[in-house]
Amino acid sequence: MSDGDTILKTTDLTKRFGALTANDEISLAVERGEIRGIIGPNGSGKTTFFNTVTGFYEPDGGSVHFNGEEVTGWEPHRLARRGLGRTFQIVSPFKNMTVRQNMLAVQTDDGRSREEKRERVGEILEFLEIDHIADNEARGMSGGQQKLLELGRVLMLDPELVMLDEPAAGVNPALEERIMDHIHELNDEGTTFVVIEHDMHVMKTLADTVSVFDSGRHIAQGDFEEVSQNEDVRKAYLGGTTAEDDEVPV
Amino acid sequence: MSGSAPVLDRLPGDRRYWFLALGVLLLAWPFLFGSFWARIGLGALMWIGLAQSWNMIGGYAGYLDFGHGAYFGIGGFAAGIAMVQFGYPFVVGFALAIVVAAVLAYLVAVPTLRLTGAYFAIATWALAESIKQAALILEITGGTFGLSLPRSPDTFIGIAVPFAISETFFYYVMLLLCAATMLVTYVLFERHEFGYRVKALRDDQDAAESLGIDTTRVKRQVYVLSCVVAAVFGSVYAWYIVFIHPNDILAPIVTDRMVIMALLGGLGTLTGPIFGGLLVFLLQRLSSVFLGSSTFYLPLIGTLIMITVLFAPSGIIGILRGEIGRDDVRKNLKELGEKFDLL
Amino acid sequence: MVDIGLFTQIVINGLLLGGIYVTIGVGFSLAFGVLEVVDFAVGEYVMVGAFMGAVLAPLFGAEGVFVIPIVLVVFFAVGALIQPLIHHVTTGDRPHPLLMGLVFTFGLATFLRGSVLTIFGPNSQDVPSSLLTGGIEVPGLGTFPVVRTVTAVFGVTGLAVFMYYLYRTRGGMAIRAIAEDRTNARLMGININRYQSIAYGAYAALTGSAGVFIGMTFNASPGMGLQYTAFAFFMVVLAGMGYLPGVIVAGIVLGLTQSFTAVYISGNAVLLVLFAIIYVVLLVSPAGILGKGEWAT
């Protein structure tokens, strides 16, 4: 446990798709209790990084340590049960089930009884303020409600680390606010977060530290201000063109 | 009770009395209506059970097993071979059917369940066809001659059977098996969290994995269970029908029927296969009596399938639940009309 | 001891047979690419085509060949009318669209098989042809049975016309664009509905007329469909879903395999081998032996 309070550490993590190196020797360490942001232009390897860390892709090189334990190549469900939760870019509730059933489907190793599990579902739904729709089918819910449900499901894992892929995408400002509050609240209680987000406003208010990806490499790390001043980062984002001002981290 | 239709809620009086009445009717059936209807009844019960077995993997788990009928045939041949080639009593054949089906299903599941969608459908279909062709070639299955099973003695596990070998006896065996299949489905897929996990992997496999669900394992469990159920029915059917041939009990039509029954009734629902199974079985069984042709039910069922898929994808259950109204059909028709755009 | 004369004769028969299978396989593969549905009705189109040959030939002086134009037109029209239905059940917000597509074509297959069975009974019927009889002796090679030769010529010609349309015309380009990416094609302003109908109609027409030729070569029977569905699956699985050049190779392999195993092994063994190959190839390399198929679900 020489890592001290490092909860997630990747060393030279590499993932290739044919000729394309989507993740090129990414080394990154996340401290317990922080909120880490990951930014980078489209196709810079952020989601691939998530998928490789959480076991959906087999890495072509390098290693992943979670809580001081080497977990490289573990199956996703095994990692999840160890307390590594994640969401997907495209919101994916189990459409033909109710909110409650969605939550109860989550499987853990903690030996909770049926009643305890049901109780926990109630607590989480209340915390997320969606307990009034607990018995509604997920297919009829709004996009925002589905996002909250997705977060709720992850919380059923009692995760130590949660990786969120664009939690604010396609969400109205009021709900965005609500999601941010929930993340802060959970973080105060000790949950670590790694967040991919395009919305720089969200990134600025949320992240303690920001990692910048470009062309599959981890090119910079620091707090939001530092990173936005970084020359490489500006280059990666501007890339010779001046379009897409909203994505420039200023 | 997410698996039962609200139409049941609208029954007058206490629901329990209706179930009780149904139970009594089913128990008294052979005595009330005689051996012809006992035969019809046992066939219907068997097909409902088989449709439910397909529904486990195809409906609840969403894996389109187009070779499921193979396990019905394997169960039949396992029992038949045990009785004919080795002279064992049926119980041994029954046990053998379960073991063989479970082992084979597990061995098939490991590589095959990695495929999804159409690929899984074609692979299981091809496997079932190869099993049929192999049974036509092999000697132990009787090849193209089939197997004639001994007429059973009048005892079952050493106990004298009151209506030995009669339709009545097999009616009660099928009733027991069908009820057991329903109970297992209800408990595992509707009541237990296992069922939620199965539906979760059907709706989104990656999300299910990310939530701690070992999808590979869960799929395998469902597949093996559903195959064993089919084999159990197969073994009893062989015992009942006495003569088995690969072209009958391994025919693709066995799978076809299960799929159609589950679909018409309502996929991934507890009671769907009951309605679908009854409808299709009776159509087929009675078509020669009432429609004057033993094959006329085929185009009828074909048409029924197409209409169901087009306008009522959640099946009879969906209609009973009121999920499909006139407006849905109208909307469907309108959208469909827009797709005709050749000229 | 291999008899060289027999051997070359088997090769000839196999190649000629392969020609007609390719026609079926290419259409089937294209239907998959365009509609993203595996068509369980493919073999039944062959069967119905063969029966149209058997039934209509007497009206044309007992000559099955003359039925071909009618089959082409009828099948194109029917296919173009069926396509919107398939498209409808596989799109939109319905549960299990893939299953719906499969089961729809499955229902169609049951309908077609059942109808023919009910109307004509279970017995097989001949598709007569007085033009296509006998064989052409080629010294040193063997006999080219006229029926099979014309069948193969038709197959290759039909295929060539089809390929020309697909690769050299605007309509063909539209169809290929849809097969590539339906959403993108729509954004490019392609009339999806129309070209999907044309593609499916053309596939049905080719398959139906292939059925007439197969009927003339063997015969027409209500139960023959399953075998040709199996053949079509075999070809696309071997080639990789939606990869047309692979289908041509696979079709010829199929013709040769059938021709050889029918002589040297029993008929049941042929099917056993075919099905076993389909299963194993799917497990080992779902994108086809060359790995160039579409890895769609």
UniProtKB/TrEMBL annotation, chain A:
It comes from the Archaea. GO terms for molecular function: ATP binding; ATP hydrolysis activity. The keyword Hydrolase does not apply. The keyword ATP-binding applies. Residues 8-240 form the ABC transporter domain. GO terms for cellular component: plasma membrane. InterPro entries: AAA+_ATPase (IPR003593), ABC_AA/LPS_Transport (IPR051120), ABC_transporter-like_ATP-bd (IPR003439), ABC_transporter-like_CS (IPR017871), BCA_ABC_TP_C (IPR032823), P-loop_NTPase (IPR027417). Keywords: ATP-binding, Nucleotide-binding, Transport. SMART domains: AAA. SUPFAM superfamilies: P-loop containing nucleoside triphosphate hydrolases. Pfam families: ABC_tran, BCA_ABC_TP_C. PANTHER family: CONSERVED COMPONENT OF ABC TRANSPORTER FOR NATURAL AMINO ACIDS, CONSERVED COMPONENT OF ABC TRANSPORTER FOR NATURAL AMINO ACIDS-RELATED. This is Amino acid/amide ABC transporter ATP-binding protein 1, HAAT family. It comes from Halopenitus persicus.
TrEMBL record, chain B:
The chain crosses the membrane at residues 17-38, 70-88, 94-122, 169-189, 222-240, 260-283, 295-320. GO terms for cellular component: plasma membrane. It comes from Halopenitus persicus. This is Amino acid/amide ABC transporter membrane protein 2, HAAT family. It is a multi-pass membrane protein. The keyword Transcription regulation does not apply. It is found in: Cell membrane. Keywords: Cell membrane, Membrane, Transmembrane, Transmembrane helix. One of its GO terms (molecular function) is branched-chain amino acid transmembrane transporter activity. InterPro entries: ABC_transp_permease (IPR001851), LivM-like (IPR043428). CDD domains: TM_PBP1_LivM_like.
TrEMBL record, chain C:
InterPro entries: ABC_BtuC-like, ABC_transp_permease, BCAA_transport_permease. It is a multi-pass membrane protein. GO terms for cellular component: plasma membrane. Keywords: Amino-acid transport, Cell membrane, Membrane, Transmembrane, Transmembrane helix, Transport. The keyword RNA-binding does not apply. The chain crosses the membrane at residues 6-35, 42-60, 66-86, 98-121, 141-167, 198-218, 230-257, 269-290. GO terms for molecular function: transmembrane transporter activity. CDD domains: TM_PBP1_LivH_like. One of its GO terms (biological process) is amino acid transport. It is found in: Cell membrane. The keyword Secreted does not apply. Belongs to the binding-protein-dependent transport system permease family. LivHM subfamily. This is Amino acid/amide ABC transporter membrane protein 1, HAAT family. The lineage of its organism: Archaea, Methanobacteriati, Methanobacteriota, Stenosarchaea group, Halobacteria.
